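for the writeup, i need someone to sanity check this before i put it in the appendix. the sequnce is what the collaborator sent (i think, or maybe the updated version? ugh). structure was predicted straight from it, no edits. if anything looks off just tell me and ill rerun, i have time this weekend
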Amino acid sequence: MTSLPPDKASTSLAPVSRNGRALSTVPNNSNLVMLAEPRSAAAEAYRALAANIQFSSGDVQHTIGVTSAAAGDGKSTTVANLAVALAEGGRRVIAIDADLRRPGLHTLFGVDNTEGLSSVLLEEQAHLPLQETVAPGVRLLASGPLLANPLDALASRRLDQVLSQARALADFVLVDTAPAGALADAAVVAPRLGGVLLVVSAGKTKRDAARRAREQLERVNANLLGVVLVDVKGDDNLYRY
């Protein structure tokens, strides 16, 4: 067991593997703590999560999706901070916002969203409109304009081409998807990825929603790497895993 000092502006994230052992403990808030406070305990915890993701994935391709059981569980914040943590040490990371209904990565990174994944899926343009971010080594493929039928766009063969292009340009590709507990989008995207993390809020997510999300991912044979449990009530002076 490892103890980490609490971050006053954060709650705890505990990604748990299938055998019930937590991978690490990660503070989570609405900001990019990896950039705002790179020497904080919160940032160190994200680095621990990044390291565990690398070692736990084994031979799995480093293309990892992050979804949630319900909206507002912090999946986009997890993607953004994890991307920054993975990019440390010179790794190339591409974050893709595949939540074409309620995108959030462009806001977290402070970049434009006029062009992105939806543009590529519809127009089949040859290049990916990747944007540099303030985090060295991290590029973002924003969601792009909202679509009338996002599920159909994500189900197209063009998404496979986008993922293949991204893999060729990066050491890690992180894909933010819509909540699996409520929408079919994640189930369409997940089988094309090396693995998936499921974000669940201990104080918000209904048990039935979490179960539906897990079952939906398992039904399509997604490689569920673990569950990220947020908003855990516990000792204010200790993070446990």
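The beta strands are 11-16, 26-28, 63-68, 93-98, 131-132, 138-141, 172-177, 195-201, 224-230. Residues 56-226 form a domain with the Rossmann fold fold (CATH 3.40.50.300).
thx in advance!!
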